[in-house]
Design a protein that fits this description.
single chain, 293 residues, alpha+beta, GMP Synthetase, Chain A, domain 3, Rieske Iron-sulfur Protein, four-stranded mixed β-sheet, four-stranded antiparallel β-sheet, iron-sulfur, FSCA_dom_sf, oxidoreductase activity, acting on paired donors, with incorporation or reduction of molecular oxygen, 2 iron, 2 sulfur cluster binding, NIF_FeS_clus_asmbl_NifU_C
Length: 293
């Protein structure tokens, strides 16, 4: 069942509450250091009050099934994490986060394995055909990083073990350098949920033209750009899993990372599309992920 509009708005509002609070705190700086200090103290008092109340609620519930339901609600889980009350350890939370994004990884022909967690570092191994496609690889790296950061904010670094025999470690900063260099940011797009099976929609998100479509129950998003003819995909047709460019009639598999189905070898540039705190969100980069550096 789709989320009701008022529920989506509520989730979206609280997801950005931290940013709004920080903006208000920054604004108090104009009143001088003393005003800023009092504002910060007020926020601390409110946070501690609600933390103590939440702790008492968890104690009074005394029902593992209910506590488990609280832990699986994105908004409540984020508060439990802030106050150190989440019932699952970091390994369980990271494992669950990877399970949630695994179907999305599979649509890009890839997968990820959790090797271990040492102190505040997660060690992963990516596998599958996505490793040979820079666009898909960057998309999956960003998706996995976001899932882990949300589930386990205490994680400070992510290391990826190469599938090569030497199993060299790749620092997360190096792995995600291309993602960060493009200025990627998550934007809420609940309107995409309105697309019907087989329907294509064009959207502009933070100045970026996006082509979204639904195949069955799954939504997919790509940059509105045909790599074969270098034109917009506006007016494209979708036949089951095959997208046809209206200009050059090139064909792409939208379910499998936009892989080209013709001899030109081109592929669409996918954009991560995930439900974050129950709200559909796009990770929109300033330029297509497949663009040359």
């Amino acid at each position: 069942m789709a989320d009701r509009p008022e529920e989506i708005q509520g989730d979206a509002r609280w997801r950005t509450a931290g940013d709004r609070i920080q903006t208000l705190l920054d604004a108090t700086a104009t009143g001088g250091a003393a005003v800023r200090e009092r504002a910060e103290q007020l926020v601390r008092e409110v946070v501690e009050l609600y933390g103590a109340s939440l702790s008492r609620i968890v104690e009074l519930v005394d029902d593992p099934a209910i506590v488990e339901r609280l832990a699986t609600d994105d908004l409540v889980a984020s508060l439990l994490l802030v106050h150190g009350l989440h019932p699952h350890d970091v390994y369980r939370r990271v494992s669950d986060a990877l399970e949630r994004v695994r179907p999305y990884l599979g649509s890009h022909g890839g997968d990820v394995g959790l090797l271990d967690i040492v102190e505040d570092t997660v060690r992963l191994r990516f596998t599958g055909s996505c490793t040979s496609c820079p666009s898909s690889a960057v998309t999956l790296e960003l998706t996995v990083e976001d899932a882990i950061r949300a589930a386990a904010p205490e994680i400070s670094s992510i290391e990826v073990v190469s599938s090569e025999a030497e199993a060299a470690l790749i620092p997360a900063e190096t792995l995600l350098a291309k993602v960060h260099s493009t200025g990627t940011a998550w934007h809420q797009v609940p309107e995409l949920a309105e697309l019907a099976p087989g329907e294509i929609g064009g959207f502009t998100v933070d100045g970026v033209s996006v082509l979204a479509c639904r195949v069955g129950d799954q939504l997919y998003a790509y940059h509105d750009h045909c790599p074969a003819c270098d034109e917009s995909l506006a007016g494209a047709e979708l036949h089951e899993e095959r997208l046809s460019c209206p200009g050059c009639h090139a064909h792409f598999d939208v379910v499998h990372a936009g892989a080209g189905l013709d001899d030109h070898g081109a592929h669409l540039d996918p954009i991560p599309l995930l439900a974050r705190d129950g709200v559909l969100s796009l990770a929109v980069p300033a330029e297509p992920m497949g663009a040359p550096a």
